[in-house]
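Lab channel / #folding
Pinned by the channel admin:
"Please post every new chain as: sequence first, then the structure tokens as a reply. Keep commentary short and put observations after the output so the thread stays searchable."

First post following the new format, from NK:
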Amino acid sequence: MSEAAGTGPHEPERPAAADGADPAPEDGRPQSGSSMSAAFGAAARKSGLGAMAEGDAPTGKALLAAMGGVRGIAEAILPGLVFLIVYTLTFDLVPSIVAPVALGVLFAIARLVQRQPVTQAVGGLLGIALSAALALLSGRAEDFYVLGFWTNGAYAVALLVSVLVGWPAVGLVAGYLMGSGTSWRTHPGQRRAMRWLTLVWVAMFAARLLVQLPLYFSGNVELLGTLRLLMGIPLYAPLLVLSWLVVRAVFPKAPSSAVA
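Reply from TO:
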């Protein structure tokens, strides 16, 4: 998305760029519209869809990269799995929350030792620590999953609001990823596809809450933990593939320079 350069009443008219792009300001500084487009484009490429954008068809390698690789999947799944296993075997809250926290610390240390980015591991560790603290403070093992409820609820609400205000979030990501900015909103077919695709993501987050909250209130920790795992990556991965297929079907392929 770019904005045409304005010309003040006493300013000389700036020549148009040869390729139809926005002319560069005379002081050499980037225009705010171009900077914003670049920022949105960079954010889009860091999303799950961005990691899938290496080719016309989704590949196993691209899908694995979108989920953070083998290590990213392990960091997402193993803490919850360890909590569930330890609690099922012992019904003791303290070791059940100590084990996933210790595992999160090991993940962070391993990344530091290997000089890899630790953002994902540290973020996961903070989430595990907060979940453990909530369970420890209440003395209820099911409270280990409360943070996940709030996270899913926040995503569902944010995505639904984006649809209601006419700016479907998936469309914003796809538009900047495909190099078309927000121009998709002027094409009824693309706008409709992005609206429905965003609603599908809303449905996934809402389904997690509808299925898991009754188990939380009934105190069924074992089934809650199992469904939490089954409704995590096993739901996320196919929906990510579906999203990329829809995006590639409704958006024309952008030149490589458009998303650079």
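NK: The two ends are 14 Å apart (CA to CA).
TO: also worth noting, The mean pLDDT is 81.
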